[in-house]
Amino acid sequence: MAIKRLLVCITVCVACTTADAQVAALLSWGAGARSLGMGRAGAAVCADVSGSFYNPAQLVRLEKFEFLGSYATLYEDTGFGFLGVANPSERAGCYSLSVMNIATGGLLRRDETGRSLGGADYSTLGATVSGAWSLDRFVPSDYVSVAAGINGRLFQMHLVDTDGQAFTADAGALAVVYFSNYRLNLGISCINIANPLMTLATGEVVPFILRFGTGLSIYDDAVVIAADMLNMRGAYEFAVGVEFNPWKTLGVRAGFNDREFTLGVGLTQGDMQINYAMLINRSWNDISLGLVHTIDVKIKMVLFKG
Predict the structure, then answer these.
(1) Are 132 and 152 in contact (CB under 8 A)?
(2) Is the pLDDT of residue 285 over 90?
(3) Which of 39, 68, 155, 244 is the most exposed place for a label (fewest CB within 10 A)?
């Protein structure tokens, strides 16, 4: 019998990049409405649980136990979710556990003759364990702070009646240079270092991703400017964003990248924060993908310290 072929009618962010892997869509999307509102720039400015998505070394900047839940409504019945918790330790670094998932329903299946085979669902789940540690004791300067972090991630893919798994590892570093009225952050993250194969009939390779990031914080985060460069399979993407915090309770964000313009807002009350981001897609080959909405909730508390 001829091998049945899947014609997947799905318009997600993977269709807008040179990456053709479904796992690439999960890893290139982004986590947290704050970074999404800043054009997806996050390798040097995400001092929360979502930092593990962009650069695990950023977790070292957390001061309290933190929970972050985020959900984005994408295209064509597709959704992206992120849940994460992290707890810092004064002596042993910071550790986090996070889960992210991208899922699509209503896919169209056809065989090689074009005959309809009905609908199908697709999903990819990534579970990540992260750790970050300060390296300041190796830096002979009171004006420079250095940290390193690692991720261990398990992927589980489901497509129709086929499942696949893969385990990957990430490594990242962060340097912060302090000046009188501003702070310069420099980050680098190597994602999927081992380039493992998914255990699917398609033999999909989990792509290696290199992400560079920089961030400038002025007057204690009153203004934050961020820029990322991402390289995946020889293709480069750029993201630039800015955040204004005129009051401690309100943050306003804007940004852009190769695919979209972004806007965002955040409301903070004590140790609780709600963030919203709207992504305005540029037309791609005369196809308009419309708007994407993301909302998340962040809660901080003193749980325990080691």
Answers:
(1) no
(2) no
(3) 244
Q: Note the CATH number of domain 13-300.
A: 2.40.160.60
With beta carbons less than 8 A apart as the criterion, state whether 75 and 288 touch: no
Q: Considering only CA atoms, which of 125, 72, 127 is closest in space to residue 96?
A: 127
* Chain centre distance of CA 237: 14
291-301/65-73 β-pairing: antiparallel
- Residue in 217, 222, 240 with CA at minimum distance from that of residue 230: 240
Angle at 190 between CA 103 and CA 99, to 5 degrees: 30
CA dist 88 → 60, 63, 135, 169, 266 (Å): 7, 6, 15, 21, 23
Instruction: Report pTM.
Output: 0.81
CB 36 within 8 A of CB 28: no
Q: What is the pLDDT of residues 112-127, one digit of tens each?
A: 666 665 666 777 888 9
**Closest by alpha carbon to 62, among 130, 117, 2?**
130
Q: How far is CA 151 from CA 80, 93, 113, 189, 263, in A?
A: 20, 14, 44, 10, 29
pLDDT in tens, 70-106: 998 876 677 888 999 999 987 788 999 999 888 776 6
